[in-house]
Specification:
It is a single chain. The chain is of the alpha/beta class. It has an eight-stranded mixed β-sheet with strand order 13-12-11-10-14-19-23-24, sandwiched between helices. α8 packs across α9, α9 runs parallel beside α10 and α15 runs antiparallel to α16.
């Protein structure tokens, strides 16, 4: 059978394609823009005839029809391994569950421990060689489709095509094709950085140097760092990141992102996932200077460590006086996920000339107008994302502290210096009670 005849033979409506799902199946929706909207709606339409179907996804915009049609969770149960704002609300409602993961182990999880009966993934249209493209979800979705018993693709012409073998999904691996009209992608662009975020970025920027390879997370602080770089004399920066967003496009437009001096894959910006603006997607589309790779490669500690002058910059939510860092929960409430933070903290610190920075505001104000410290005496339910033994630089608007190799009292002293002044005396008293404060420590 030739290529187009095979394609036509696999064409189905969304309702026809989801007939393959059975009671108790595990169905995977992949990540970000791979979420299959038409297939999700068709599966939800089968609610009354299905029971115990487990849906797995990651950082999906929502709403998901399978969640919203089944308030009691009798038919569909949702599971995520990194929360978007929508998925966070799903968990808050008791309609979903979190799967702890680190991204470098994704392929291992799917090969060794997870069952995927049906993968439903949105893709870019098939090319002349018979390959669909996984777009900005490729780093995660490739492991999903490789290990699924059945694969259904929902074609969206708006999906950017990312270069690299990991982004290719051959028609031969697909059981059913559902064609849909072009649908706008989920665009996620952080607002301009605040003055506080610029202050935090100002303590990271002096550590950057020409030729550094940079991993940026999403948020105000990475955006502020991008602005500082764009206005600076820094040159020949590289990209090696699990998740790329508009910050890299800004660096490219400023002439700072050349990838020339990377020690691994020089000339190529490497990403695993991508989410941002329409202009960002247009920049990625078939860009020969961008290489998409699977997350078990991008987030591999030995791979990251090969990049000389590797700099990892990520956000966090809280730290305690022992140097433990939480970047994914408020108390026991799941906010996001471990993702690749620990991968890049370990990989960057193992690289020659490498550094990792975890950034946060020193405090926050709740809805009642009460200020709370993000630096705590000790965690009381917050989930540790990066253990104290792995934390390198921690940054707030009051400075940057290198915790590597520091004793418990040195850590307490450094962390209190990063806290909001309103909480420092209280934190000193806590450190004294916890026996991690020397009598001659600074006040």
């Amino acid at each position: 059978m030739d290529l187009m005849n095979e394609y036509r033979a696999k064409l189905k409506t969304a309702a026809e394609a989801v007939r393959i799902v059975k009671n108790g199946d595990w169905v995977d929706y992949g990540s970000n823009n791979s979420c299959p909207i038409a297939l999700d709606e068709a599966l939800a339409a089968r609610r009354d005839e299905l029971h115990g179907v487990q849906i797995r996804g990651n950082f999906l915009r929502g709403p998901l029809a399978v969640v919203e049609c089944d308030p009691e969770g009798e038919h569909f149960v949702y599971n995520t391994w990194h929360c978007s704002a929508y998925e966070r609300r799903v968990l808050d409602r008791g309609r979903g569950y979190f799967i702890p993961m680190v991204f470098r182990n994704m392929d291992w999880y799917y090969r060794s421990f997870l069952t995927t009966d049906v993968a439903m993934i949105t893709v870019a249209p098939m090319d002349g060689q018979g390959n669909f493209n996984l777009g900005g979800a490729l780093g995660a979705s490739c492991s999903v489709v490789e290990n699924a018993k059945h694969v259904i693709v929902e074609v969206n012409p708006a999906m950017p095509r990312i270069r690299g073998e990991a982004a290719q999904l051959p028609l031969s691996k697909v059981d059913a094709v559902v064609e849909c009209p072009s649908r706008p992608l989920w665009e996620m662009v952080a607002p301009p950085p605040s003055e506080l975020e610029r202050q935090i970025a100002g303590y990271v920027y002096p550590h950057l140097r020409d030729g550094a390879t940079i991993q940026l997370g999403i948020g105000g602080v990475p955006n502020a760092i991008g602005e500082l770089i764009a206005e600076s004399d820094l040159r020949d920066l590289g990209m090696h990141t699990e998740l790329a967003s508009d910050g890299y496009l800004a660096l490219h437009r400023a002439g700072k992102l050349t990838n020339r001096r990377k020690t691994l894959q020089p000339g190529l910006g490497v990403l695993g996932l991508a989410i941002g603006s329409r202009e960002f997607y247009d920049w990625l589309d078939d860009n020969p200077g961008i290489l998409g790779c699977r997350l078990d490669y991008v987030n591999s500690i030995p791979v990251i460590a090969q990049q000389e002058n590797m700099v990892s910059i990520n956000g966090c939510l809280a730290a305690d006086l022992y140097g433990q860092v939480c970047a994914e929960s408020v108390g026991t409430r799941q906010i996001s996920g471990t993702g690749g933070q620990l991968d890049f903290v370990n990989g960057a610190t193992a690289a020659k000339g490498g550094m990792s920075f975890l950034c946060m505001s020193s405090s926050y104000t709740d809805k009642a107008g009460v200020r709370h410290s993000r630096i705590l005496p000790h965690f009381g339910g917050d989930i540790v994302t990066t253990p104290r033994s792995e934390v390198y630089w921690l940054v707030t608007e009051y400075g940057a502290a290198n915790l590597a190799g520091r004793s418990s009292w040195e850590r307490a002293e450094a962390l209190i210096s990063l806290a909001h002044p309103d909480f420092r005396e209280e934190l000193i008293r806590a450190a004294e009670a916890q026996r991690i404060w020397l009598p001659h420590n600074k006040r």
